[in-house]
Amino acid sequence: MAEPIPALPQSYAPGLDSVFSDQLGFYSIDSNVPGLSKVILEKLNMKDYGDYRKAMEGKTRGATFHSHKEMFDKMEDTFKFCAACKKLPAHLPDPKALKRCIKCLNLYYCCKECQKSDWPLHKKFCKKLRLVAIDRLVEWLISTGDLPFPTQTWTRPAAEINSWEDWLAMQGDLAPRMEPILSGKNMTELWKSVSRARPEDNDLRESMWRVCTEFLSRPLTIGLGIKLFNLDPYSRPLTIHVVGAAHSETLGARVTDMDELSNMFPGHQGLEVVMVGPEVVEGKAIRPPLKQFGPRAKSYISGYRGLYHQFWEDVVEKGEAAKPDLVVGFHPGFHATQSLGEGWLPTLLLLRDYEVPSMFTMFNESEYELSLQILLELEMHIKATGVNPFRAQKPEQVQACPNKPPVYCNWHYICFQGLLEREELEEAEGGEGEAEQA
């Protein structure tokens, strides 16, 4: 990049400019494909990471494109590097030498030798990466308002809906809701603007379904947390804080984004979801948190840009926002680096010491195991863990290292509340000692 991101110090007091997860993403990208982060920024018409942050914070105008074709072409350019040798087009004698895998239309190779050497690994993921390539284009229909398709009020109690299969059986035939999108002008414009043939209609229906599950996974995961902690939205209003909220949850957020919670608990007393995090992006849905709850049977979204423990001290403790009945973190990433860990530590200790019912989700099993280890080291009382029955069905490619098992939004979850009782902690430690002696 024009101005390299400075190395993070080993220890410091975390501030708003030191805990951005997208900054970690740029490091990760360049560690796998040197120079790729610069390509991404150039395609967004930005010179460095500082420009990116300013755009995300609304201080400057974001990327602008003259046409949909230009937008999709530049997006595809950010995936153009040799999957085998990691070379970018600018590092090749002929920048046009990169050719796509004809099966997945996702990965690129600079020569036949690289493609041949990579095939034993790529063949394990080729079919799945084909879905990824379709989904990242169909996902554009969320920004146009075509997706998610309309959903209906639940006709069965939330306690009886324990999987996507249950949800689909209750929702009934989705075809009448999908067909207008499939034949609509935006779907037509999408495939007219990209440099590949339009997939079969059935492939597009399945892609729309996968993209919608990622969107719906957030409210359904919150609903799962409400059930796991035995909270009753029919007896009183509930306040849910989404801690560590980033631009992935707030960029372009709509006031209707959590309406599936109202479908899930029809006639509830009121549900407020407060997005809190240093990467919260201003928008229509990011309003001040409520002091007193609003209309019955409505889901209300609000937001606060800042670290969660600061929000608690500056807003919650002063009575300007309700204390949470549940805190949810979607892929908090506190396991990833020391800097993020230090940014998260005050929040984790706050949640523990105030005994706030909390639920965090993870992308994959590795993240789940590392996160669980950290929470146990903090002596958190773990209430429940497992594979989320409402994880997204849309596979996510690790952009700079695609030949890896894909990850899925909200794949695993960990529920915790308060401090582990000393007796339980001693029993756990005693059990470990006996096992070691054996």
UniProtKB/TrEMBL annotation:
Q: Which Pfam families match?
A: MSS51_C, zf-MYND
Q: Which InterPro entries match?
A: Mito_gene_expr_regulator, Mss51-like_C, Znf_MYND
Taxonomic superkingdom: Eukaryota
**Keyword Methyltransferase attached:** no
Establish whether keyword Zinc-finger is in the entry: yes
MYND-type domain residues: 82-126
Q: Which GO molecular function, any one, fits this protein according to its record?
A: zinc ion binding
Question: Which PROSITE patterns does the record match to this protein?
Answer: ZF_MYND_1 (PS01360), ZF_MYND_2 (PS50865)
Q: Which UniProt keywords apply?
A: Metal-binding, Zinc, Zinc-finger
Which PANTHER family does the record associate with it? PROTEIN MSS51 HOMOLOG, MITOCHONDRIAL-RELATED (PTHR46920:SF1), PTHR46920
- What is the protein's given name? MYND-type domain-containing protein
Which organism is the protein's source?
Coilia grayii (Gray's grenadier anchovy)
